[in-house]
Amino acid sequence: MNSSYPRPAAANYVLVMLVLAYILSFIDRNILALLVGPIRAEFELSDFQFSILHGWAFTLFYIFLGLPIGWLADRFSRKWIITSGIFLWSLMTCLCGFAKHFGSLFATRIGVGVGEAALSPPAYSLMSDYFEPKRLRFATAIYTAGITVGSGTSYMIGGWLYEKFDAMGGWQVPALGWEFKAWQLTFITVGLPGVLVAALFLLVREPVRQKTALDKEEGVDLADVGQHLRNHWQAYTSLIMGMSMMAVIGYGMLTWLPEFLLRTYGMDKTSGGAWLGGIFIIGGTAGTFSGAVFAELLQRRGYEDANMRLIGLVAAILALPATLAALMPGAGLALALYALVTYLQYTHFGVGIAALQLITPNQMRAQVSALMLFSTNLFGLALGGSFVAFFTDFVYRSDGALNLSLASVAAIVYPAAALAIFWGLRHYRAAQQAIE
Q1: How far is CA 379 from the centre of its chain?
Q2: Residue 262, Cβ neighbours under 10 Å: how many?
Q3: C-alpha distance from residue 409 to each of 308, 386, 433 (Å)
Q4: How many CB atoms are closer than 10 A to CB 71?
Q5: Residue 19 sits in which domain range?
Q6: pLDDT digit string (tens) for 398-410?
Q7: Residues 98-109: pLDDT tens digits?
Q8: pLDDT tens, residue by residue, 296-309
């Protein structure tokens, strides 16, 4: 191992802390998907209006703040940026539980997004300085497992917590004049653990930044970043757009699958959440690790663009099963197909992150990562849920047609992702050679 990299024990501790933070971030952002019914009833919302609360409220500042946070992370302590972000989004998740009207819930969801914007751009940069290139795709795959574990956990505990609090009749604190409904208590409960993780992240040390062939002694400015992106615009456009299309269907499913099981097959929140939680935690996490293995196998077969190529292959394969899954006549068949879809869907993200780092100079990695997250979150978080809801409310015009909406989005988006990736493979190879 290159002696300039930190000891494995230190690297592994950082990775564990980042994974815990990422898990909590997905629990806190996705818990709303388990509360569709009570929140729609509370504020008298349509599916499309709820999707704006779920997607746009969170994403509004999340995507725009990622860019300046990336700039800061390429210059200052990534440890303190991440620690501050964890504490902020955990606090704001708890405050969602104090919301008494739509405006206050919208505002606190914005706060969750602001805090979470401080995690991934500096995290990707941090991992590239803790893990040498041959280990990076496995580190990013492990980190990416936070998506599936966090999402799955939110499904499993979200429905269970809500129904427990609902059975209690909520909670009242007469001395303070507080009265909390079940959905509010659910927010407070899932937000609290983040405060502990923020404290544990204080033990992380900021590592020495590694150098690449394109890094400068005097550092880089925004003009340098812009020039590098222009030099390899086809590679970045292809990779970022392919990842963004995958995010549309990924976040669309995250938002609407629990409600799909309820509306289409009559499954209650606890049962649906348990099944989906298991699928995401087991199948999605297995897929995340498998992605690194599959990319390794492709590279051994001579594909130097293995990290990016895998994304295109997965997107092409997924178009048919993802479309059919939403149209199954019974819940068992639908869940079985969605287990396969989830496994394959999550093979792409970790290797995609590694692919981005390996064509980007170290001094630009947090900023370029933030650019990719801007796009994937704009398309995925902001538009993924709304794209599905658009079909439900404005094309099929029926809450009961949610299954048709999910099928339509899968049939459109997966082929688009595959085309974007395969168009850029040769340009990606050229960009990769330039940095080595």
Answers
A1: 12
A2: 18
A3: 23, 11, 36
A4: 18
A5: 8-435
A6: 989 999 999 999 9
A7: 888 888 888 898
A8: 899 999 998 999 99
